[in-house]
Amino acid sequence: MAQQLLKGKRGIIFGALDESSIAWKVAEKCFEQGATFTLTNAPIAMRMGAINQLAEKCNAEIIPADATSIEDLEKLISRSVEVLGGKIDFILHSIGMSPNVRKNRAYTDLSYEFLMKTLDVSAVSFHKVLQTAYKQDAISEWGSVLGLTYIAAQRTFPSYSDMAEAKATLESIGRSFGYHYGKHRKVRVNTISQSPTWTTAGSGVKGFDAFFNYADKLSPLGNASADACADYCVFMFSDLSRMITMQNLYHDGGFSSVGVSQEIMDMLMGDNEA
Ligand code: NAI
Known about the structure:
binds 1,4-dihydronicotinamide adenine dinucleotide, 6 strands, about 45% helix, about 270 residues, 10 helices, six-stranded parallel sheet, alpha/beta, Rossmann fold
């Protein structure tokens, strides 16, 4: 093993549902880099049982928690401190779900009840995790908290629907809590804006393959994989990134800075000539 960037660090990883989950790859890499951590997911997601394999592989305890429930989060965080033997150094929030997207509700015909659920699960839960940790004083100085987001917070992608609102809120919570937690305990809070990635949540978005291919053709480096995202998370949890906080960090192969690429031009010119 080349390095042990996270040796001695303790963490909590939310959102590993199956092998394709970004959180799954993050857990594997954190383990490789010497971290110890607990794994958590919504009790309903545990039914699939895949998380048990990951827990075994990473020698991690699983603590079920609905990330919208303060009571669950209080238990999760205090139990994690107990089993890991000290304060937490890193947290990954890798959670997203929109009932409007799931049920194919058009953006111009949203159910507001669903919208509230989207916001609670995908964005406000980030605040709940941070606030619960803050109140329990459960994160060590220079600890690092990450949320995963998507560029639909800045630009419109029609089929991303109300998840765009959730991501804009998530990123804002990252900045705002980053200020308060930075002042209070030097804890860092950032969001990583990831390329489209083939996972359960990702492929739930209508037309995801077109979405994925378009981004791949626009980005000079191509789409960033879940593995590459996990490497970035390890760096962000490590002491190498200790002065980075309150940022929305693009991890997208250059997508966010490109107007148009030659590949897309060629495709469109080909269409015109045909
Ligand atoms: P995933 O479907 O593997 O992970 C989503 C997780 O959220 C699941 O483990 C699910 O059980 C969990 N979850 C849902 N409701 C919950 C609740 N109430 N309490 C606790 N956990 C709950 O999909 P993926 O793609 O790994 O998603 C992880 C994060 O990455 C999400 O925030 C997603 O929006 C973000 N992201 C994904 C991209 C993609 O194209 N896949 C692109 C950019 C960001």
